[in-house]
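Issue 218. Parser rejects a valid record. Input:
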Amino acid sequence: MNPYVKAVRAPFLAGSVIPVVIGSIFAFEQGCFSFAYFFLCISGIIGLHLGANLLNDYFDAKGSDPINMRVTPFSGGSRVIQDGEVPAVTVLIMALVFFGIGLGTGAWLALVGRPLAIPIGLLGLGAGWAYSAPPLKLMDRGWGEIIIFFAFGPLITLGTFYVMSGSLNWIAFMLGGPQGFFISGVIWINQFPDFEADKKAGKRNLVVRSGPATARIFYLLIMISGFFSVIFIIGIFQFTYLIMLSFAALPLAVKAMGILWKEYLSYDRLIPAQALTIQTLIVHGLFLSLGVFLSHFNF
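Output the parser choked on:
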């Protein structure tokens, strides 16, 4: 694989693109969908997400990644800096370029009548920066998982709906909740193989703070909350019951939870659970979107 393609870790874009799809389908259900705005939202979020990925690699290259020997296809970073494939300064420049694309998209949207796209975009950029970069480095302080929940869940679905409609909406915000839980689950399970290296490097994320045995319980709670949040949306907002189609992802989640519970200390046997967690996020988001879409036709 080309090292520059490898550096951006594009497969993880599902974590940000799926919420854009959810917000867009909700806009369609509300009668305000626009293909032009959809592609602008996709462009902006991809820019911010890839910038955050690259920034994370840049700062982890000075922290836990050099001593991490338990690398998996889903954790441990892209390794392009450690393997000498791409200079660290180039990774930083690439991050700034992608952040510029994200902010440029927000500026364009503001010019065409969506002024709140700028502060929403800045919140996304700020989350990506604060997660990895000093002085905050929230990933080291036990706050990274929380900021990821909002940045890759409710903030994206709300922002996408705002771009489509020109207005803010609580349901649009809440529809990002399940994705927030599942992307947090992805971050959480990926910290198990990194545990020893993170601990030695002083990276005090919540898995390090609680220890792997206890962290298993929190992973189960995070994944279960992703499904229960759908029931919450239906009950509190009287939203369409069709979004329970998203429970099609439940078997994937149950299998991931079972593997983690047994294999939490084995980084190689944990890889299928990492893959299943990402698959849960994708399948849940697509079927939730399908439920919203079908509700438009009064099913």
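Fixed in the parser; the record now loads. The chain is about 70% helix and 0% strand.
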